[in-house]
Amino acid sequence: MSKVIPPQQTTAAFAVQAAISFALSLGAMVVGVAYLPVGAWIRAFLAVGLLYVVTSAFTLAKVIRDRQEIGQVTNRVDQARLDKLLAEHDPFKVEGV
What we know:
The protein is mostly helical. The chain contains two helices and no strands.
């Protein structure tokens, strides 16, 4: 019997905390790169690197979320099939009689 996974919900406070944390860390990095005492080429390289890290982090989070959702749908389908088989099963039925 497969286990049923209850839907996970995040609170509004957690979502706000995550958004603020992301904004502060990104802002601090942008300010740090902008005021770094190096040449324009090095600053541009660091800015592109920062952009790449941010976009790849979003992509990774999306991939993980999509895999989790697929797993939940598969579990629900398996559970529905099992429930149907159990509902249709008659343990007292004798075959061939």
